[in-house]
Inverse folding.
């Protein structure tokens, strides 16, 4: 029998300590709709949230009072002319606005007073939010475009001049588009967003963006410019997903209003109208999927500045809006988040250069160079090099069906002006790449400063951190996060190069990793709205969302499109915010009802199965039925939460029916084996709580044995990769789980890392011939698992949002120390431990207004859990060999 670490204490000692000089309690981190001081809020009941800055032992909120008004001074003096909640008892820190009707295009100020643990009133600083258009009827501007059709390659440029004669108080721009836009004022780009507005089902929901343009305007002459890109709205090249046949497809169009609010109280609106002018420019081709082509000889210097001669420009035309549902883009924007300089540069000849950026990423590159006029420079982006050291796109250029010579995949084309040093960075495209190969029609001279790469993604704030004594664990965490961010572009994607599709399965398989590490609620609220847009009346969903029509096949089933239930539920667990779950309730019900209709006996084969397994295939009916059970269970829990008693009874009964059917067909009670006993077939029922309680230990023991027989290597596809580590850990086989998680021989996550991967891969086999993207998120559970295991930080479904934290850390034999942090809605949770000889010292930080329960590992002599109030704690264990 192997040696085990026995953690024991003569008596569990819990030392609570406070700072020597505790902070005065104060409400902080005020947000509206989960954004700090947002502009362009588009709903009448926005959510207001806050945290407490209070490091005293047992810190909590006993009551609150919210003040909302249009005058900051009045709000500061506790006057809420739009809403005053009065003193409300309780610890709630997420409150939906219920005051007077909010007006469009209006700034509101708010603050919160709270009563702390001693009953003293503590006031926040003043926060603000600002409403947007608040409905289609408030728009005054027209939708305009140029006179070209969907086949036209050149991007349209638009301009208008206007004069400001009075002193501005502030100014806003509201712009909606079919396609993508870049907005400029007086020669400078407005804001730091990329790829706005975000991709939606354009004919059912069109997004607009609000910009604060107060500092870009001046008294006197001003000029506004707009460039439109195709994006997913006008997908010109052919690919297997039929985006070129999307029902919404049209030439890009936009609608813009500039609101000028003057200090004298007056207001003026500059609208997109037929008095604008349009022209082509240097962007002669752009596509979100392949690349952008730029002819620097066609630049029109000063086109978006006052005084530009636009006599050769043309008039615009009216266009219909893409949809009748124009709503605010209430999510964090896509930005250029991190800059990379080349790690190395190789010159093959005077026309061929290769740059290694050292990191696989999603994003774009900027190039600066000079050369002969008309010189064509191709800037190709990829993840791999061939045996000759040149760029190799063969692993990702597999689904593109366009003209690969004229419109090469993942390749920008720059035609030099010959007049100056040309600088080019695409506006309406992104790629997935580590390497950049530059080839030219004429000799050029490049240096390591010629190319800059930008890691571009939805700019979600980090909420997680992991540091351990294992270099491999630390690398796996970073690699997973790099893959996740590379696949976040206003919706989660599978890969940033080959497809860029919102595969549903990839999205929910990685949801815990996402929410432990990043503040992503606004991204998922946007994406689940896309789900609601795409759902068929009978409840069916496609397996890529958004879609132009592809994906409503026979395999778009439960193991993939359970996103509709799993993601709203996980957002509820992590944030304690039921808005998304409530918004999706009817959609979940329709989905479950559809599957129930086609699966009257409780079992279903509706699904794709355990995608990309190592070698063992698992039973499709088993895994799909488990996800059917999971969705019905979530629906039942949501019905109970929202007081839908009849639904609760109905779907609770359905849950029992499905579970009984699964166990009746697939569980051999004598052997404790599901189906054929693959790692996936054993771990999926354990993880999703299908196994009968009296069989749980036996099934888990079989799983543990199966993994041990495989020399502690995994043998799973995506469904098993989600379940395996959790199933082992939750049933007490923690050492086995940790060995699998940190294995560095094939097949394993670590095998990728030791072979130089900087993001997660799509296939366990480095030599596989298909499914070989090098930046994929479907195996991304590993990043979230470290929080649940080594950190042991778990939300409690009965007190979601980490109102009550369940602490179940494991202390693997091979790991000597770990510090795991997560910024919850109440503040930062810290779970940190270190082995010192025969002892473990475990340090915990519980945020204010929250509490925790520490569940000691079963191999201790501690008789029960330890309840921990808000504050800092030290727990000490003596380690005894057994």
């Amino acid at each position: 029998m192997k040696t085990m670490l026995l953690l024991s204490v003569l008596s569990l000692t819990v030392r609570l300590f406070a700072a020597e000089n505790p902070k005065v309690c104060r409400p902080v981190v005020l947000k509206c709709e989960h954004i700090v001081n947002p502009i362009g809020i588009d709903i009448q009941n926005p959510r207001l949230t806050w945290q407490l800055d209070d490091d005293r032992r047992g810190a909590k909120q006993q009551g609150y009072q919210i003040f909302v008004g249009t005058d900051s001074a009045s709000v500061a003096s506790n006057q809420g002319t739009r809403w005053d909640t009065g003193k409300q008892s309780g610890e709630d820190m997420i409150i939906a606005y219920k005051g007077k009707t909010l007006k469009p295009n209006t700034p509101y100020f708010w603050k919160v007073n709270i009563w702390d643990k001693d009953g003293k009133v503590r006031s926040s600083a003043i926060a603000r939010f600002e409403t947007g258009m608040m409905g289609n009827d408030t728009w005054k501007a027209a939708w305009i475009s140029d006179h070209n059709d969907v086949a036209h390659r050149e991007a349209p440029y638009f301009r208008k001049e206007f004069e400001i004669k009075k002193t501005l108080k502030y100014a806003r721009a509201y712009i909606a588009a079919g396609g993508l836009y870049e907005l400029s004022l007086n020669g400078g780009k407005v804001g730091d967003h990329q790829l706005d507005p975000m991709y939606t089902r354009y004919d059912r929901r069109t997004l607009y963006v609000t910009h604060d343009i107060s500092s870009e305007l001046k008294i006197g002459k001003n000029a506004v410019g707009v460039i439109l890109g195709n994006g997913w709205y006008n997908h010109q090249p052919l690919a297997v997903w039929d985006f070129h046949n999307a029902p919404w497809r049209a030439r890009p169009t936009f609608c813009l209003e500039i609101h000028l609010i003057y200090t004298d109280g007056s207001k003026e609106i500059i609208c997109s109208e037929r008095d604008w002018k349009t022209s082509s420019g240097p962007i002669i081709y752009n596509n979100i999927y392949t690349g952008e082509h730029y002819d620097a000889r066609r630049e029109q210097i000063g086109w978006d500045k006052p005084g530009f001669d636009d006599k050769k420009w043309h008039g615009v035309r009216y266009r219909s809006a893409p949809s009748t549902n124009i709503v605010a883009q209430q999510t964090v924007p896509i930005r250029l988040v991190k800059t990379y300089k080349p790690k190395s540069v190789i010159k093959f000849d005077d026309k061929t250069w290769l740059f290694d950026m050292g990191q696989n990423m999603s994003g774009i590159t900027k190039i600066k160079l000079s050369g002969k006029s008309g010189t064509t420079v191709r800037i190709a982006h990829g993840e791999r090099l061939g045996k000759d050291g040149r760029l190799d796109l063969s692993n990702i250029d597999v689904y593109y069906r366009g003209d690969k010579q004229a419109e090469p995949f993942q390749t920008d084309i720059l035609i030099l002006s010959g007049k100056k040093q040309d600088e080019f960075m695409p506006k309406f495209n992104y790629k997935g790449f580590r390497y950049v190969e530059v080839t030219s029609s004429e000799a050029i001279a490049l240096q390591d400063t010629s190319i800059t790469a930008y890691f571009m993604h939805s700019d979600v704030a980090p909420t997680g951190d992991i540091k351990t004594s294992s270099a491999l664990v630390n690398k796996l965490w970073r690699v997973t996060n790099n893959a996740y961010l590379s696949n976040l572009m206003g919706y989660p994607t599978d890969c940033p190069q080959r497809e860029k599709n919102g595969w549903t399965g990839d999205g929910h398989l990685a949801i815990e990793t996402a929410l432990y590490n990043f503040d992503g609620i606004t991204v998922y609220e946007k994406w689940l709205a896309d789900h609601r847009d795409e759902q068929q009346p009978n409840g069916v969903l496609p397996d890529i969302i958004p879609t132009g029509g592809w994906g409503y096949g026979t395999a778009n089933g439960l193991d993939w499109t359970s996103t509709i239930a799993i993601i709203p539920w996980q957002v509820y667990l992590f944030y304690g915010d039921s808005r998304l779950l409530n918004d999706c309730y009817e959609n979940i019900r329709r989905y479950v009802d559809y599957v129930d209709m086609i699966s009257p006996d409780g079992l279903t084969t509706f699904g794709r199965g355990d995608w990309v397994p190592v070698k063992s295939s698992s039973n499709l009916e088993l895994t799909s039925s488990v996800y059917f059970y999971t969705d019905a269970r979530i629906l039942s829990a949501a019905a109970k939460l929202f007081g839908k008693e009849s639904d609760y009874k109905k779907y609770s009964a359905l849950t029992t029916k499905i579970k009984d059917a699964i166990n009746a067909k697939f569980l051999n009670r004598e052997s404790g084996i599901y189906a054929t006993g693959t790692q996936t077939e054993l771990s999926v029922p354990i993880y999703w709580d299908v196994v009968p309680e009296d069989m749980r230990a036996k099934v888990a023991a079989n799983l543990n044995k199966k993994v041990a027989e495989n020399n502690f290597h995994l043998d799973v596809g995506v469904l098993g990769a989600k379940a395996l580590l959790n199933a082992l850990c939750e049933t007490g086989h923690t050492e086995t789980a940790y060995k699998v998680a940190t294995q560095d021989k094939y097949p394993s996550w670590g095998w990728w890392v030791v072979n130089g991967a900087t993001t997660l891969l799509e296939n366990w086999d480095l030599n596989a011939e298909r499914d070989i993207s090098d930046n994929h998120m479907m195996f991304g559970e590993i990043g979230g698992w470290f929080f649940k295991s080594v950190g042991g930080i778990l939300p409690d479904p009965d007190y979601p949002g980490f109102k009550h934290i369940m602490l179940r850390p494991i202390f693997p034999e091979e790991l000597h120390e770990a510090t795991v942090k997560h910024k919850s809605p109440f503040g930062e949770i810290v779970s940190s431990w270190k082995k010192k000889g025969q002892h473990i010292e475990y340090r915990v930080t519980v945020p204010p207004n929250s509490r925790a329960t520490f569940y000691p590992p079963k191999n201790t002599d501690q008789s029960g859990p330890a309840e921990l109030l808000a504050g800092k704690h030290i727990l000490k264990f003596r380690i005894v060999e057994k």
